[in-house]
Amino acid sequence: MNWTQLATASIHELIAWAQPQPWCQAMAACAQDAQWHSEGDVWTHTKLVLHELKSLEEWPSLSSHEQTILKFTALFHDIAKPLTTEIDSITGRVTSPKHAVKGEHLARNILRDLGCSLTTREEIARMVRYHGRPVFLLEKPEPIHEVIRHSWLLHNRLLYLFALADTRGRDTDSMTRPEENLHFWKVAAEETDCFDRPYAFASDHARFTFFHTSQPNLHYQPHEEFSCQATLMCGLPGAGKDTWLARHRSDSPIVSLDDIRAEMDVAPTENQGQVAQLAQERCRELLRSGTSFALNATNTMHQTRSRWLNLFADYDARIEIVYLEPSLDDLLQQNKKRSNRVPEAVIEKLASRCQVPTWLECHTLISDAEPIQVT
Q1: Number of structural domains, the chain?
Q2: Crossing angle, helix 143-151 and helix 156-168, to 10 degrees?
Q3: Residue 92 belongs to what domain range?
Q4: Number of CB atoms found within 10 A of residue 353's CB
Q5: E strand or H helix at 95, and its extent?
Q6: Phi, psi (5° rounding) for residue 183?
Q7: Cβ distance 352 to 263 under 8 Å?
Q8: For residue 110, how many C-alpha atoms fall within 13 Å in the half-sphere facing its CB?
Q9: Would you give the DSSP letter of residue 374?
Q10: Which of 38, 117, 161, 237 could pair with 342 in a Cys bridge, judged by C-beta atoms 3.0 to 4.6 Å apart?
Q11: pLDDT in tens, 76-116
Q12: CA-CA distance, 259 to 261, in Å (whole number)?
């Protein structure tokens, strides 16, 4: 089945499609802690959650797209437990640390291979990543900040509904966090008017400041006087970043890591310390002079992006992120035409680890998943 068929499949059909998949068979063989999941293995729990979705009072009123998001969140939410499960040798207790983090990557890669659109794929991947957050809301020092942050990552209403199905999709009398705890997520989101939409900040800069301050204040309205605009390009090698810049930022200076590597005669496989240092120096020169510019590099990992974004923010730049993602087939074909061709194994590895930018990172986010059309 392709994505178009799967997106409209019934829960019964989705289960039938999943069961022969290697990742599903791994879930069926993965035990869970009896205190939390006395119903048994991960796949048994997953099927129960899928069926609980149809029992939600809100289910009939959801759009077909919203139902699709919830179905695939249920299917993938514990997909990484086989990779992360540990059994304590003394107590026998079973844990799966960071399974949601790894699950996000697995879900993203499966959905990419199925041909799922970028927008829908990221909705599902982020739901998988944060599916367990509502139950722990009362343990957070600033619960309101928690629901506001997530409103810019996903739909709080869908996260709440999934949490209900996840809690009900198990067979145990020993749950220590009752379903009532989940309602606090709904109440907190409704009180801040971000249950069905992202929280309405006073400005893009107020949002940016809130997400980049160690002690954020919802009532703080920062002064807006930007020194320039810094555009951070993100995308795999061959994604069309040069072409996008030529079309949309032709008047801006470009700091390109590929160009710097060529100047310094440094191969991409060699130590990149000097390349990054020179790129930083050139960015600082432009930032000091108040000149708007673009930084052209892969920047597919959040940790890598954050170093550049922090530098731009230090100089009061307005930050724009442009993320380009053509299909992997298109990208590999384009890579073959490049003079500095990147090994396909490297591109595939980068794709499997890619962390797509979010609105938490910047003032403006542009995502483009159109096919590459290089002139």
Answers
A1: 2
A2: 110
A3: 3-191
A4: 12
A5: strand 94-95
A6: -65, -25
A7: no
A8: 23
A9: -
A10: 237
A11: 999 999 999 988 878 878 888 999 999 999 999 999 999 99
A12: 5
